[in-house]
Amino acid sequence: MVRIRGETLSYGDLFKGVYHQDVERLPNSNRVYWGPAYFDRTKNDDGYRITFGEYLILDRQNIRPTVLVMDSVLDRYPVKKLISTRIEEIRRQKSPRGFLFALGTPKVRLFKDRSYVNIAIESLDHIDVRYIDLFDELRK
Q: Would you say which domain of life the source belongs to (predicted)?
């Protein structure tokens, strides 16, 4: 068991692989969402958009959740080089896929009549970015 912000959870309840769950049925508190993800820069080139490879379901639509890591947040992070180097190395690969663990809560956003699901993280301490070979190791 683990205790986070007064909530006691089993490890099984703490970790949620992103794989076809209904967003409305997910807990409204922090969990570790994990899975293969694609790494890219935002459209405004002011941060990174990390998009899970699998989707969640919202109103019968398949939506791939994202985690946004803005440059302004990275610039203030004490160990910026560690995380930014790993993200950038993954992003520059021919296939920009990595493995993401993100402690946060799914938030539904509406922008230009389109729904998005973002995993809202409170700190860069709440994400871990790994190379995709971790996925191969976990499958063994």
A: Bacteria
**Residue keyed to tokens 């993954």:** 90
Find out whether 54 and 18 touch, Cβ atoms under 8 Å: yes
Tokens of 51: 């998009």
CATH class of the domain at 11-139: mainly beta
Structure tokens at 66: 């994202």
Do 90 and 39 contact (CB within 8 A), yes or no?
A: yes
pLDDT in 10s for each residue of the chain, 140 residues? 888 878 899 999 999 999 999 999 999 899 999 999 999 999 999 999 999 999 999 999 999 999 999 999 999 998 888 899 999 999 999 999 999 999 999 999 998 889 999 998 989 999 999 998 866 666 66
User: First CA to last CA across the chain, in angstroms?
Assistant: 25
Residue of 22, 29, 33 whose CA lies nearest to 62:
22
